[in-house]
């Protein structure tokens, strides 16, 4: 094979997820839906979840490439997560990729943080991620292979005024990935995270023009990120291209924290 032919062949298979089965929680919009599209385009069979079954099915139908289906799931319900993950693995005969994306964002200055806000944030962002990683690991251990990605945040790595509860929850999510990777590596299961900066999604629209302008000014690339850019990083981490990468939190922030 010539060098040109070899390069062409490698390019064609780079990041290929054909034959893989993937689950993406919180996949009805934003980064989650962009990730569903990216995985499906790479050849994976994808199951996405959302709290509302109708919205989950609608989101799945909006993906024009590959095999995508939608199911309802509340990630704060550990039993429901376990049941759904087992069901996906049984239906498709395997579960190769899990992206724990489901999460919520509620801002509040330190003196205004209510107890119920803390409980919701921790139950969804931290508890939901742990439930998802736990269930995924059980399904993947049988074949001793698999890739899991959790959605952390640059805020969780470096903090942010007015986001103490959110930052705490996302810091915990990052450490779920680090700790789980240490436990699951012996089973051939890789666990990583991505830490997005300010991304153009419904979750950041509430920040307002002035705050967004300040964040753009602080970002080396001088713009907001796009959900598709985070999705591409996730696709890399779950692919064989990242076969020796685990326990890492990859910043996708345009240089926000430099």
From TrEMBL:
Keyword entries, A-Z: Oxidoreductase
Gene3D superfamilies assigned: NAD(P)-binding Rossmann-like Domain
SMART domains, per the entry: PKS_KR
Endpoints of the signal sequence: none
InterPro entries cross-referenced by the UniProt entry: KR_dom, NAD(P)-bd_dom_sf, Sc_DH/Rdtase_CS, SDR_fam
Pfam families named among the record's database cross-references: adh_short_C2
Oxidoreductase in keyword set: yes
Residue intervals of the Ketoreductase domain: 20-197
Domain of life, per lineage: Bacteria
Family under the similarity heading: Belongs to the short-chain dehydrogenases/reductases (SDR) family.
Name used for this protein in its record: Glucose 1-dehydrogenase
């Amino acid at each position: 094979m010539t060098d040109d032919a070899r390069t062409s062949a490698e390019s064609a298979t780079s990041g290929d997820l054909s034959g893989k089965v993937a689950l993406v929680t919180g996949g009805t919009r934003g980064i989650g839906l962009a990730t569903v599209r990216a995985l499906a385009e790479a050849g994976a069979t994808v199951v996405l979840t959302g709290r509302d079954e109708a919205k989950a099915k609608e989101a799945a139908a909006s993906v024009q490439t590959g095999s995508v289906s939608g199911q309802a799931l509340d990630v704060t319900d550990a039993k429901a997560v376990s049941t759904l993950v087992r069901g996906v693995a049984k239906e498709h005969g395997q579960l190769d990729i899990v992206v724990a994306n489901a999460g919520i964002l509620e801002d509040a200055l330190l003196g205004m943080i209510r107890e119920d806000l803390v409980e919701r944030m921790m139950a969804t962002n931290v508890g939901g991620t742990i439930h998802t990683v736990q269930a995924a690991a059980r399904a993947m251990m049988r074949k001793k292979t698999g890739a899991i990605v959790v959605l952390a945040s640059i805020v969780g790595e470096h903090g942010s005024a007015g986001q103490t509860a959110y930052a705490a929850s996302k810091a915990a999510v990052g450490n779920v990935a680090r700790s789980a990777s240490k436990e699951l590596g012996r089973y051939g299961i890789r666990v990583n995270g991505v830490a997005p900066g300010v991304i153009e999604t419904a979750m950041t629209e509430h920040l307002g023009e002035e705050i967004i302008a300040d964040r753009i000014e602080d970002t080396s690339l001088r713009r907001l990120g796009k959900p598709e850019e985070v999705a591409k990083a996730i696709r890399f981490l779950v692919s064989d291209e990242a076969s020796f990468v685990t326990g890492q939190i990859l910043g996708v922030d345009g240089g926000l924290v430099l």
